[in-house]
């Protein structure tokens, strides 16, 4: 079994390069990172997952080593870029885990290709559209990014962590912030604008035939835990609540590792 991560693999899509990595053999598991993150967020988990799975990680538009296609990256644009990778690899069926914005992209991918995704996990993510307050915040962030980018990224990223987590997970926090600061200005603006116009995709989530799980951090101010629990009552969508905030891959590493092992077993 091949357990190496093949870095710096690219596919051309709309005249730009999409970066991805592949490791392991077995049923395909697609991992999608969140906003101001890259595919390296999964590095602590890939070795175990690739024992039994063909793991694909993609840098989304404007993040990591993937280039930009414009100043608005809607979730459908990002999903089409991801699909270009899957098509290049002749992948027809996947399970998928999407963190935060990666979950939004996964749902857009499920809408564009209804038969593609078997099982889906939204990690610190949601099917909901932005409310008006959130849309206003995104508009302000996009405007501020043109003049005070580094300060804005630091503030935006820091707000993802409760203060206690910033202290408890100081090393991981600083590493993740360093990655966030490498997000291009255009990628930051385009991502915010794209997330602001995404629709509610609860119906798309419900239509997925396999296992559907939403992981929520109990201290996560971005994801509306109470509403999600109410919306998904009497459905086959499972809810798991972890103890910390929006960055479960850092704050709840052991719980997430255990979950991923169960989710990825086939």
UniProtKB/TrEMBL annotation:
Domain AB hydrolase-1: 27-252
Keyword Hydrolase among record annotations: yes
Keyword check for Oxidoreductase: no
Keyword annotations from UniProtKB, A to Z: Hydrolase
A matching Pfam family: Abhydrolase_1
Molecular-function GO terms, alphabetical: hydrolase activity
UniProt-listed PANTHER family: MONOACYLGLYCEROL LIPASE
Stated name of the protein: Alpha/beta fold hydrolase
